[in-house]
């Protein structure tokens, strides 16, 4: 049958498919075969990152997508987004009017894949462990509002918070809050390598070569008890070196599903091809890309330099040349579809203007051209990243105000160097931990931020972030969130560039592709199945 493009509506909190993928009995494997999913995410254990899939360390979308299949959390984000729902928990909720005491009751009969019971003590151990290890990935900061964790018997856990946090249920749905077995994970030490023991819908067998994961086989966990209902017995996740090799594998039938990151060229080809046996699903995306700054570095320490870059960069031209309709210009850290978003950067800088940028630099007595190196990762965000940075270089140098060079590095080298402050300017992407404005602000601006950024604005940290978290109604929090975005636009510790859509391509006989990823790019392997022809 012909390929179909399925477009899902971009409504955060109400993500409902307008059309379900149909099957085709003439492609792919038999109904009992493992579903093979391709990805360009790479998983490497190194001296800098020896524990890539430990819940207390992992903090990138690829590693989280492994953990979400294998490690249970008290809460989970539902298939169509919206408020998180109990998963390992039977029920959870705030028990006070101030959003400072959160209690959960566990489902009965939970056990880890090795047969050990999942109880309140294991939950407390897991949360306390992540907070005490305090990994340099910064993932522990998601749990920073926790003061103490209390157990009441074997099945009840109470979280006492330092301050009100209406986003706390979302945080309990993220892998850093994953429940691990105290027998398999040391309290004060990360678990190196790729072994995972959890109570999630799947168990995982890792195939590793030269400290790199080359294949992950997820097998349905017969002892799993929770909210999710796996529609398959086995899924194989296969990493590829680039989008082209992944696409070739899909064409040949070596894989059944192609996920992030497809190249813009692949997406356009699939959109226009009416003769193949592949379904392309377009979904609303909450991914953003941005430039980060080491605000202590001499080259960009002056706010005027960062403001001048914000005044020169032409986001619309960048998106048009590199990504086309697959992305849109972004003028805040918070995407346009998230409650609380403002166009703070456009409000301050309007359209690109070299004369205004020159005035900013002259007033600060900055000698031009300002010499800078923009660093980017060559293998983490897709093949178009190099082209994107080529366009940024051209835009900045064409102004005559900057002398920019660009330098790429593989993710396993790029990320440790960025965390150590070795880059003055660097390109990063962000896939939200949960769809709330707080998760686009606090991870970059709060204490122990994920970038290791030296930027510190006391009003944001001490007043505005806590103020926004007190509001269970996120519309009510908009004033605080708006103030944060205005400060970021003025100080420019981060320069937002664009937000993107997301895509999944599947062979004809695969069902559930419309739910294979949620808006936060969470890979939901349990939704995939094999169908028959319409």
TrEMBL record:
Segments passing through the bilayer: none
Top-level taxonomic group: Bacteria
Signal sequence, start to end: 1-20
Subcellular location(s) per record: Cell envelope
Pfam families xrefs: SBP_bac_5
Protein name per the record: ABC transporter substrate-binding protein
Alphabetical keyword list: Signal, Transport
InterPro entries for the chain: Peptide/Ni-bd, SBP_5, SBP_5_dom
Domain Solute-binding protein family span(s) in chain numbering: 83-449
Similarity comment text for this entry: Belongs to the bacterial solute-binding protein 5 family.
Chief place of localization: other
Native source species: Streptomyces glomeratus
Source lineage: Bacteria, Bacillati, Actinomycetota, Actinomycetes, Kitasatosporales
